[in-house]
Amino acid sequence: MTWVREASGKRNTGNNGSGIDSSMPHISATIVACNEAGRIARALRSLACADEIVLVDSGSTDETATIAAGLGARVIKEPWHGYATQKNFATRQAQHDWILSLDADEELNSLAQAEIGAWKRLQPTADAYRFARRARYLGRWILHGGWYPDYKVRLFDRRKAQWEGRYVHESVTVNGRVATLPGEILHYTCDTLEEHLQRIELYTDLAAQEMRERGQRVNFLRRSFDPLWVFLHTYFLRLGVLDGHQGFLIAAMAARYVRRKYQKLGRGRSG
């Protein structure tokens, strides 16, 4: 673990003559990142409601760490250990018990920022809080196809919650009550179809490995019909058709994800 640099000033860390009530819950925002120079500033600027920002960088070769430090984040260099493990590492580096976790390709909208600011003036009534997440895909905000509201737990008491998920689809598991806060996380997914295809190849590698380690098998019928069912379910039953050509592509890529995952699982077993 390598420390890059700490922000020169602390924000809202107690009543030291600034008029801030030290009994208010303080928040540490955490982000894990690698080569995110093009979008990390947007994410960090939406975290002004936090009392500190911790960014764990897993080996960027661009200006990610420099940009983050310049915007007041405490940057820590740490090799990549997997999504959930990396995010739990970031949680442990935080100064405060309340964690606000964001991905580098996300930002809090103005309502979510205001609601967190209001929440800090009260005593918490839950152990974790979730937000709706709205995704932007190929230039369009997606409202159907199972992509919205896509609730995500992102504000939580680390004494009651942690990230879980060995390979893909990591999520926060909470030992306590979860409530919903107004506002949204804005998720900037893919700007090009090629980017989406690359992500599918990465995530299906991990998903197939996870299935293999669990001893999961997929028979011929599932290999044949699951991709088609996923397309029909996403495009028609979950109303992806209402999201224009982006909705069609999302359904087609969801089917491709399943097909590629099963193909890689089969290859791994035969090898």
Helix-strand pattern, N to C? EEHEHEHEEHEEEEEEHHH
Class of the largest domain in CATH? Answer: Alpha Beta
CATH topology of the largest domain: Spore Coat Polysaccharide Biosynthesis Protein SpsA, Chain A
Distance N terminus to C terminus? Answer: 36 Å
Name of the CATH superfamily of the largest domain: Spore Coat Polysaccharide Biosynthesis Protein SpsA, Chain A
Structural class: alpha/beta
Domain module count: 2
Range of helix content? 25-40%
Proportion of residues in β-strands: 15-25%
Q: Tell me about the largest β-sheet.
A: 10 strands, mixed
Q: How many H/I helices?
A: 7
**Average residue pLDDT:** 92
Q: What's the CATH architecture name of the largest domain? A: Alpha-Beta Complex
Low-confidence stretches: 2-20
Task: Give a description of the structure.
Helix 5 packs parallel to helix 7 and helix 6 (220-237) runs antiparallel to helix 7 (244-270). The protein contains seven helices and twelve strands. It has two domains: 2-188, Alpha-Beta Complex (Spore Coat Polysaccharide Biosynthesis Protein SpsA, Chain A); 193-270, no CATH class. Strand 10 (161-164) and strand 11 (171-174) form a beta hairpin. It has 271 residues and is α/β, with parallel strands linked by helices. The radius of gyration is 20 Å and the shape is globular. The model is unreliable at 2-20 (pLDDT under 50). Helices cover 37% and strands 24% of the residues.
Compact summary:
It is built from seven helices and twelve strands. It is an alpha/beta fold.
Question: Helix and strand layout, with pairings?
Answer:
Blueprint: E1 2-5, E2 27-33, H1 40-45, E3 52-57, H2 64-70, E4 74-77, H3 83-93, E5 98-101, E6 106-108, H4 110-119, E7 128-137, E8 140-142, E9 152-157, E10 161-164, E11 171-174, E12 178-188, H5 193-213, H6 220-237, H7 244-270
Parallel strand pairs: 2-3, 2-5, 3-4, 7-12
Antiparallel strand pairs: 1-4, 5-9, 6-12, 7-8, 7-9, 10-11
Helix pairs in contact: 5-7, 6-7
